[in-house]
């Protein structure tokens, strides 16, 4: 799947045309409203789950213990989702994750949801790399090893 099947808004950046990671998820009853259509809010946990699966497949974690103490973690600072078509209970959605921007301290992901090639939604998450120690969260430069792992496309296991 490429982003050409998703004509939704572009911010003009050099968005990658091939995903870094692709996974699938079946719509569960808890994801839907009374009409059996996926509730708008259900896409956000799906994005987070896809991000976590991508990080695991890359040999990382959203909470990675550090030898120096504390952990490296990724709080979200922005999240959005544009809805293109309805998804329903029992639909199998393909979720393609793109690393749209990898900054010094942050990463912006794009998630393209589709069903049988039909665009369903496009979501975006921005997360900041932080060190968490003794209850304090401090933004830090993304370590080179983490940057390399996030920059490398992986397969869902």
Give a short overview.
By secondary structure, the protein is mainly β. Helix content is 15%, strand content 38%.
Low-confidence stretches: 6-11
Report the CATH architecture: Roll
Helix content range: 10-25%
Order of helices and strands: EHEEEEEEEEH
Strand content: 35-45%
Total domains: 1
Number of helices: 2
User: How are strands sequenced across the largest beta sheet?
Assistant: 1-5-6-7-4
CATH class equals: Alpha Beta
Distance between the termini: 18 Å
CATH fold-level label = Thiol Ester Dehydrase, Chain A
The CATH superfamily title: Hotdog Thioesterase
Task: Please characterize this protein's 3D structure.
This protein is mainly β and 157 residues long. The chain has one domain: Thiol Ester Dehydrase, Chain A (Roll). It is 15% helix and 38% strand. The protein contains two helices and nine strands, in the order E-H-E-E-E-E-E-E-E-E-H. The chain has helices at residues 43-57, 144-151, and strands at residues 21-26, 63-65, 71-73, 76-83, 92-102, 106-115, 118-128, 130-133, 136-139. It has a five-stranded antiparallel beta sheet. The chain has a four-stranded antiparallel beta sheet with strand order 2-3-8-9, with no helix packed on it. A hairpin with a 2-residue loop joins strand 6 and strand 7 (118-128). The longest helix has 15 residues, at 43-57. The two termini are 18 Å apart.
């Amino acid at each position: 799947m490429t982003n050409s099947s998703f004509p939704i808004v572009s911010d003009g950046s050099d968005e990658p045309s091939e995903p870094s990671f692709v996974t699938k998820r079946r719509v569960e009853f808890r994801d839907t409203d009374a009409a059996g259509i996926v509730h708008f809010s259900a896409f956000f946990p799906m994005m987070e789950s896809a991000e976590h699966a991508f990080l695991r497949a890359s040999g990382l974690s959203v909470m990675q213990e550090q030898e120096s103490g504390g952990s490296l973690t990724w709080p979200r600072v922005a999240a959005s989702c544009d809805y293109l078509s309805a998804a329903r209970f029992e639909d199998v959605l393909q979720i393609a994750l793109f690393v749209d921007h990898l900054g010094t301290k942050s990463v912006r992901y794009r998630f393209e949801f589709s069903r049988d090639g039909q665009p369903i939604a496009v979501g975006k998450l921005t997360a900041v790399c932080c060190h968490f120690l003794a209850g304090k969260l401090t933004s830090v430069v993304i370590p080179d090893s983490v940057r390399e792992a996030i920059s490398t496309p992986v397969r869902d296991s």
